[in-house]
Specification:
67% helix; mainly alpha; 6% strand; two-stranded antiparallel sheet; single chain
């Protein structure tokens, strides 16, 4: 992962270039330093959450990365995304996901932990906030379980109307991203409509909120 090291020639060059901007040079230099520091903090949060979550020692996690090419690639992508993210919550969750993936051995062609990671790599705080907002309401499947599949009761449930109202207030690009990654479901009724948060979406939220248990994802 390439980045500008403090005190390096590239760092000096950037500062020099910013200083040449009339009137704003000093202010831009301050912003540049602030952004770099925040990225370092995000990267540190990612690393610390990985080591804290992993079942073994930090040295064992590093060894796992050297043994598994796919895991190492996931680590690089996660670290880069964590460093540039606007959300420390995302950085920490990426670390937790990496640690759980490193703790499992699977021969499955599709690994849910990797899918969760790939979904989170594509999300930022607007999507995370939207997912959290929608998680306050039960999906139609959850309402059906509560009401013994009585469709009249499901349709009449006030929480369903509140869910549709909350969905309508989300920006369309946010909804599209959540649906694309199967974090929000789609159902067919009178046409195709967006449902509530899926089990996959709630699992991702558990990583973001720090409540994911070791058995939340099937190995």
């Amino acid at each position: 992962m390439s980045r500008i090291e403090p005190g390096s020639r590239a760092d000096t060059a950037v500062k020099a270039a910013l200083s040449l901007v009339p009137y704003l040079g000093g202010a831009l230099s301050i912003v540049y330093e602030d952004v770099r520091e925040r990225r370092q903090e995000r990267l540190q949060s990612f690393a610390e959450s990985s080591f804290e979550r992993y079942a073994g020692s930090p040295d064992e996690l590093i060894e796992r990365l050297s043994e598994d090419e796919n895991l190492a690639d996931l680590f690089i992508r996660s670290a880069e995304s964590a460093a540039t993210s606007l959300s420390n919550e995302k950085a920490v969750a990426l670390g937790r996901l990496l640690a759980d993936r490193a703790s499992t051995s699977t021969d499955q062609p599709v690994d849910e932990l990797e899918l969760l990671t790939l979904a989170l790599l594509d999300l930022e705080w607007p999507h995370i906030r939207g997912l959290s907002e929608m998680a306050r309401f039960p999906s139609d499947a959850e309402l059906e379980m509560e009401n013994d599949s009585d469709q009249k009761k499901v349709s009449a449930d006030a929480r369903r109307a509140e869910r549709f109202e909350a969905l309508g207030e989300l920006p369309k690009p946010v909804v599209a991203a959540l649906v694309r990654h199967a974090l929000l479901g789609q159902e067919s009724g009178y046409g195709l409509y967006v449902d509530g948060v899926t089990d996959f979406g709630r699992t991702l939220l558990s990583y973001l909120e720090g409540t994911a248990a070791d058995d939340d994802v099937d190995p």
